[in-house]
Structure formats: C-alpha cells, structure tokens
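Aim 2 progress update. The chain analyzed this quarter is reproduced below.
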Amino acid sequence: MRKVASICDVNAENIGYSPSSDQYHETYLWQKKYMPVNIKVDGKRKSMFTHIYESPDNNMECNTQEVVLLRLADVMLMGAELGSSKAQEYMDEVRERVNLPSVPPTLENIKKERRYELAFEGIRYYDLMRWNELSSALGKVKNVPVENEGEPVEYSIPFRPETNGFLPIPESQVQLSDGVLEQNAGW
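Predicted structure tokens:
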C-alpha cells in the first residue's frame, strides 16, 4: 500500500510519458512525494500552488520540494528508537494513520517503519549511517538497469569506507577555522 502511494510506476500507471534525450538514469519510477500536485479548477488543470498562492503556473517553480518539513512521524519514530516509555504509543500512532496494525517497537520494526514512512525524504542515508549499515546498503546497489540518454545501461553506487559516508568539509572552511576544524576522515 505504501509503495503505490510513494512510487509512480510510469509504465504501469500509463501517464503518457516519453523520455527526452536529456533524461539520465531513467528508471520510469518517480517519487510521488515530489511530483507536482495538480487540481481541476473550472475544468482545467492548475497547479495547486498557483491556485492557493497565486504563484506562476510553472512546474519548475510550483513544487513541494521547496517546502521543508520536520514530520511528526519522524519525531515519534526517533522517540521510539531512543527507547522512550511511549515507544509503543509512538509506533502505533504512526502506523494507525495508514491503517496498519500495531507491531512491537523493536529496533528492526522501527528501521522498517522509518524506511517506509519517510521514503524519499532525504533521511534514509543518515539513518543507515547512524546504524552503521551504509556500506552494506550501498553495496547492494549494483548493476541496476536504467536508461541514459535513451540507451540501456547498468548503474552501481560505489562506497568509500574510509570516509564513513561523510562528505569533505570545504577546504576553505578548514583553513578559515584556524585549526578548529579537521578534515573528515578519508578526504
């Protein structure tokens, strides 16, 4: 149920999409959380943001990516993960919203819940880092079939264990810190 709500399978949903030559790593699977929200006004399609906020009717400027949120579900699942006395209550409330039955707030169940509930929200990478599972998870992303400029290719994600998943601190900031900041490991 959550997969259909989170992922648009372009081919299965028959939305009439044809990739252009500038599409890279095209899987024909789109994140619904970041798709434009359109409504019908007087029988015509209109961006929800254009209708509500009178913003330009332009999908590049009227999208939900610009809306930064800290979701209550994220906070509740953090509380459950920390072993709060309300861990069961938090898990139940998050699952109840989507009509799912109660499950015990074990670490494995919390990990699954975070993966599904917070899909495509930019949190998973850091969850995997925190749980020391990033290398293992990225190691599974091998030879994924995609299209690159209309040609079938396979895509893999390399992981550099010496960095522990961290990006480099810009060298200019390390120098400006006058010895306070040290470059992240592996960089």
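DSSP finds nine helices and six strands in the chain. The longest strand covers residues 144-148. These observations will guide the mutagenesis experiments scheduled for the next reporting period.
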